[in-house]
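Review form for a predicted model. The reviewer records the input and the model, then writes brief findings.
Reviewer: anonymous (R2)
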Amino acid sequence: LVPCCVDQALVQAMAQEQARRESWVARLELLRDSLAGREAAWGEERRALLEKLREGDAELRAAHAEFNVEREVMRRRIDDLQEQLDVANARVLASSPLGD
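Model under review:
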C-alpha cells in the first residue's frame, strides 16, 4: 500500500506542477500579446510624432528660406539707400563753398 500512496502523491504533485506551469505559460502568453499590442500602439504613436516633426521641420525650413529672401531684399535696399546717400553727399560737397 505504501508504494501505491507514494505513487498517487507523486502523480498528484506532478499534476499540480503541470497546472502551475500551464498557468505560467498562459500568463506569459497574455503578457507577450499585451506587449505586442503596446509595441504596435507605440509604433503608431512614434510614426505620428515623426510625421509631426517632419512637418515642423518643413515649416521651419520654409520660414528660414523666406527670412533669407527678405533679408536679401533688405540688404539690397540698404545698399541702394547707401548709394543714394553717397551721391547726395557728393552733390552737397560739390555745391558747398567749403568744397572749393
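Findings: The mean pLDDT is 85.
Further findings: The two ends are 140 Å apart (CA to CA).
Recommendation: see findings above.
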